[in-house]
Amino acid sequence: MARKARSAQRSLARAGDAAKAQALTQAAETIRARADTVLAANGQDCSSALEAGLDPAMVDRLFLDEGRLEAIASALETVARLPDPVGETIDSTVRPNGLELVRRRVPVGVIGMIYESRPNVTVDAAGLCLRSGNAVLLRGGSEAKRTNRALHAAFAEGIAAAGLPREAAQLVPTQDRAAVGAMLGATGLIDMIVPRGGKGLVARVQAEARVPVLAHLDGICHTYVHADADPAMAEDVAVNAKMRRPGVCGAMETLLIDARYPATSELLDALIAAGAELRGDGRSRALDPRIAPADEEDWDTEYLAPTLSVAVVDGIDAALDHIARHSSGHTDAIVTGDAAAAERFLAEVDSAIVMHNASSQFADGGEFGLGAEIGIATGRLHARGPVALEGLTTYKWVVRGSGQTRP
User: Fold this and answer.
1) SS3 377
2) Residues 185 and 118 in one domain
3) By CB atoms within 10 Å of each CB, which of 58, 102, 220, 403 scores lowest?
4) What is the pLDDT of residues 322-370, one digit of tens each?
């Protein structure tokens, strides 16, 4: 499969911008035309997930309806309209000896995508990789195997109808865990692995990979309500950050409330009224008896559910210390009217995404204007935050001379 992908990737390198965009547009239309097949397959996957006792957050990530399927197709069309990064000149210079040097953006090559739960990743990853000139091997989780097969079949049919090779986006046909091991060891055949799933999956990938890894880790996201936060804004942001969709990686998992914030009781009331289950430290529990006690594990837990850890902190220094100890480097936010405090938070929090006066649920490639994302990269190398077209490219140096030789 990887060798076929390599051959297909060379074909993509010859395809122009218009051809790739047309292929994604055709794939979106084919997905819409196959909606009944996709949703029937998804219904079977969801039934199996419920019978197997998967937790509600996992089932929510798996579930598709007409609206979510339309969002998948629309995301492909958005990616098709985005500027093609391939061939872009990053910078250029002319050396004193007359050599012209250009740094040009090029595809990474063959991407290995290993993911769990979310069938939309099948299409998002395939679309982003194709648009950026990469071929991709997709290995989804067993809980979504029927949906992934139906979505992939529609995507492959669409791009083939537009004249691009089906092998540009291949779905690994087995759920055997050994297939993951084979991908992780495919040095020279796969150029980059992108894992997207729980801690267990990412830990295995990082431990076993002989191929470079662009890691998407869990989202232990914090919101710090500063002493100078506007109470109405703080309530709106906190409730949205936790409760809009608790099962997404950008959902707030820990709320830090400044000890000098004047409307703590109202903030806690709003969260509880919205359906949040709160677990807190001693200081927060002293303010509201409805808060259950939190243990040390809670501060490092991605609940992906309507459960929230709450701590009262003494100022921005304590908030920054807590985030430094417990954040997964995904997304952290501050709510404040104090511009200096906001700038300090944005400068000192070492996460892929930092926010001021905004819900962490905006941590999403579509909301960033990227069309879709292959994941939120939480490392420090290559790409960081929502990884879309540019994050799936590297560069090469193009040197033009007029016969220069080196003395």
Assistant:
1) strand
2) yes
3) 403
4) 999 999 999 999 999 999 999 999 999 999 999 999 999 999 988 998 8
